[in-house]
Design a protein that fits this description.
160 residues, mainly alpha, 2 domains, two-stranded antiparallel sheet, 4 strands, globular
């Protein structure tokens, strides 16, 4: 619904959703109009009104996930090279058979780190992806706990 009209030469009508157009329309300042719309507030980029908390926590999760990927690879190398375990992922096991344990796990680590970086970069832009990153962090955290407890038990037996 449009507002009343002109008051002393200034346009006081309201546009869609009752947003006042005072002064901005007369001056032709589109940026001032956009700043009044709740969906616009990030220096010209369109954001959802319910975007949620800042994405600064994604960087911390990225570092945590990268550390867990490296821990997983190092622990897997220890288990496989000592003969205490075999690689459970058939694709990685095939690469390890072809390239050797170290190079195969290094390739897997680089691939996994790339996926972590891509997923967390996407999570900075899309709120829904943050839930997937959280899920990955929980699963990889559980795997890391298993590796840590087994490494402690193994080295405790070797050194103690």
């Amino acid at each position: 619904m449009m507002g009343a009209g002109v008051d002393g030469g200034t346009d006081t009508r309201t546009g869609a959703a009752g947003i006042p157009l005072a002064g901005a329309r007369a001056a032709g300042d589109a940026a001032a109009l956009l700043d009044r719309i709740p969906a616009w507030r990030a220096r010209g980029r369109l954001v959802e009104a319910s975007e949620g908390p800042p994405t600064s926590s994604v960087a911390g999760i990225r570092r945590l996930l990268l550390a867990m990927v490296v821990l997983d690879s190092v622990a897997t190398y220890v288990w496989v090279s000592t003969g205490l375990a075999i690689e459970g992922n058939p694709l990685v096991a095939h690469v390890m058979d072809g390239l050797g344990d170290g190079p195969g796990l290094a390739l897997r680590t680089i691939w996994s780190a790339g996926l972590v970086v891509a997923l967390t970069a996407l999570a900075r832009r899309r709120r829904r992806v943050r839930f997937a990153v959280t899920f990955v962090a929980v699963i990889l955290g559980l795997v890391s706990l298993v590796h840590l407890s087994a490494l402690v038990a193994f080295w405790g037996g070797v050194l103690g």
